[in-house]
């Protein structure tokens, strides 16, 4: 990861601040930084979102394609995640330099969406074992300002909310199935994202844990717990990361606050997405022009 | 000829532009805070983000360093969702490698490389939406075939620093096409120059007020 180097004194300053529930940018331990979110800004995708969380910038594009279902799950559609760490974020990511981090994010995202309760994948199947919708979720990391996993998951959820699948009518004539994919941009269906998870990363710094760690705080953190929390408070995936260790009681503490913050984050996110959608066509897309 | 023509009888292109007209360009500088320099440019539907790091010490293999000039290191990648059909890889395919080489060649000529010996400048370009060349075809026109000439110039001195032609073009037309391309370069230059000037005056005003207040 694109780490920054801190001196011992700088680390102590950050750790002491966190102990007093007052972080270097004035936040308390369970506050997020300001987010900037916009959906539907890339016109040749089925759904897209751009998220800026302080200095972390993420762009997600979703393309839906008709394909054959996997043989082990003949009656469901599927999600395929792909993460690319752009060299724009840091020169270390040039060539294959960002691949490790990208795979890590990709795997955790697919884990957190692997639960059957998250999305109604059955509704994405058109003809069992023949035809289903596949969502290609492409995450592009453009700038690293800490807390990449949370940011990626929020952007993915927003892009899924924005995704429009063309309606398909199927006519069965003896052996052949004939498909008619609607090309009317308003004749579309949406998917229900109310049960999709957001990833919450809790970083253990000193004796306390914080959410949404900045890059500097990440440099002080030895162990973190990442959990994918849905709006109902269910955890669909969890992983402990980092070189340090955690004792069981602090894990349960972290899970408690992760669940609470996760539920709130999901709720707020959906509220804002609906608010944006209500503006409808009057809304001007800003993109990177701000 | 059956099917579509690139130019209508009235001399308009498929999207209603005249032959020499560029699509609308919008540009912003300082998109990223961590890069040493960054810009975003939008031309019609083409959207590109660029970041520059350096000049800094040569990274990786030290042998790369040049004793008399700076190493220009470019990378062009396309977002996997940028094209009509989804791409499998953001870079490493022929088109991105070719673009990387074009960038490398252009900037080796454009930058005064002798000013920073033994160091390196990184130029990273991320294409977010279907790229087209600077002479500005739209995607349909590009895929339609026909000869294509790519030119990059230094607008102040009128020097050509990059030139490439694909396809077949009669010699007699070459001068006219080149003139048109150079005029196109100048048009783009004027737009970008204005944005740069605006950005600099805005930044310096901000710095000035910071000094006055603090």
From TrEMBL, chain A:
One of its GO terms (biological process) is rRNA catabolic process. Its main location: cytoplasm. Keywords: Acetylation, Cytoplasm, Exosome, Nucleus, RNA-binding, rRNA processing. Coiled coil: none annotated. One of its GO terms (molecular function) is mRNA 3'-UTR AU-rich region binding. Residues 32-166, 197-260 form the Exoribonuclease phosphorolytic domain. One of its GO terms (cellular component) is nuclear exosome (RNase complex). Belongs to the RNase PH family. Component of the RNA exosome core complex (Exo-9), composed of EXOSC1, EXOSC2, EXOSC3, EXOSC4, EXOSC5, EXOSC6, EXOSC7, EXOSC8 and EXOSC9; within the complex interacts with EXOSC2 and EXOSC4. The catalytically inactive RNA exosome core complex (Exo-9) associates with the catalytic subunit EXOSC10/RRP6. Exo-9 may associate with DIS3 to form the nucleolar exosome complex, or DIS3L to form the cytoplasmic exosome complex. Exo-9 is formed by a hexameric base ring consisting of the heterodimers EXOSC4-EXOSC9, EXOSC5-EXOSC8 and EXOSC6-EXOSC7, and a cap ring consisting of EXOSC1, EXOSC2 and EXOSC3. This is Exosome component 7. It comes from Pomacea canaliculata. The lineage of its organism: Eukaryota, Metazoa, Spiralia, Lophotrochozoa, Mollusca.
Automatic annotation (TrEMBL), chain B:
Gene3D superfamilies: GHMP Kinase, N-terminal domain. GO terms for cellular component: cytoplasmic exosome (RNase complex); nuclear exosome (RNase complex); nucleolus. Residues 21-126 form the Exoribonuclease phosphorolytic domain. InterPro entries: ExoRNase_PH_dom1, ExoRNase_PH_dom2_sf, PNPase/RNase_PH_dom_sf, Ribosomal_Su5_D2-typ_SF, RNase_PH. GO terms for molecular function: RNA binding. GO terms for biological process: nuclear mRNA surveillance; poly(A)-dependent snoRNA 3'-end processing; rRNA catabolic process; U4 snRNA 3'-end processing. Belongs to the RNase PH family. This is Exoribonuclease phosphorolytic domain-containing protein. It comes from Pomacea canaliculata.
């Amino acid at each position: 990861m694109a780490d920054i180097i801190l001196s011992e004194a700088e680390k102590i300053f950050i750790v002491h601040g966190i102990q007093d529930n007052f972080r270097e940018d004035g936040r308390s331990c369970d506050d997020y930084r300001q987010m900037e979110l916009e959906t539907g800004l890339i016109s040749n995708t089925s759904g897209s979102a751009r998220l800026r969380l302080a200095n972390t910038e993420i762009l997600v594009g979703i393309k839906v394609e008709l394909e054959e279902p996997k043989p082990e799950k003949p009656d469901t559609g599927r999600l395929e995640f792909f993460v690319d760490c752009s060299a724009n974020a840091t020169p270390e990511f040039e060539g294959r330099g960002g691949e490790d981090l990208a795979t890590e994010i990709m795997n955790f995202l697919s884990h957190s969406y692997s639960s059957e309760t998250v999305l109604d994948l059955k509704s994405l199947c058109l003809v069992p074992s023949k035809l289903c919708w596949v969502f290609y979720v492409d995450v592009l990391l453009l700038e690293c300002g800490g807390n990449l996993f949370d940011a990626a998951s929020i952007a993915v959820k927003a892009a899924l909310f924005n995704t429009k699948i063309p309606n398909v009518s199927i006519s069965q004539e003896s052996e052949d199935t004939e498909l008619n994919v609607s090309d009317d941009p308003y004749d579309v269906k949406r998917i229900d994202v109310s049960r999709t998870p957001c990833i919450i990363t809790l970083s253990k710094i000193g004796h306390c844990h914080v959410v949404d760690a900045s890059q500097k705080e990440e440099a002080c953190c030895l162990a973190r717990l990442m959990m994918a929390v849905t709006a109902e408070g269910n955890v669909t995936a969890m992983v402990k990361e980092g070189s340090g260790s955690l004792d069981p009681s602090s894990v349960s503490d972290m899970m408690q606050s992760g669940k609470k913050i996760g539920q709130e984050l999901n709720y707020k996110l959906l509220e804002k997405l609906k608010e944006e959608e209500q503006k409808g066509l009057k809304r001007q897309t800003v993109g990177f022009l701000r | 000829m059956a099917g579509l023509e690139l130019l209508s009888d009235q001399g308009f292109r498929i999207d209603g532009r005249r032959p020499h007209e560029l699509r609308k360009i919008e540009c912003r500088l300082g998109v990223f805070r961590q890069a040493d320099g960054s810009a975003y440019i939008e031309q019609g539907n083409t959207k590109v983000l660029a970041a520059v790091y350096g000049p800094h010490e040569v990274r990786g293999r030290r042998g790369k360093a040049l004793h008399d000039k700076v190493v220009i290191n470019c990378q062009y990648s396309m977002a996997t969702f940028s094209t009509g059909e989804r791409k499998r890889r953001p870079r490493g395919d022929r088109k991105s490698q070719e673009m990387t080489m074009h960038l490398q060649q252009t900037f080796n000529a454009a930058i005064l490389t002798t000013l920073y010996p033994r160091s390196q400048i990184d130029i990273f370009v991320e294409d977010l939406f279907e790229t087209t060349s600077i002479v500005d075809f739209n995607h349909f026109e590009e895929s339609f075939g026909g000869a294509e000439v790519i030119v990059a110039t230094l607008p102040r001195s009128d020097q050509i620093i990059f030139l490439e032609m694909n396809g077949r073009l009669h010699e007699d037309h070459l001068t006219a096409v080149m003139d048109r391309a150079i005029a196109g370069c100048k048009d783009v230059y004027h737009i970008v120059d204005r944005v740069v000037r605006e950005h600099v005056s805005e930044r310096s005003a901000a710095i000035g007020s910071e000094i006055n207040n603090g």
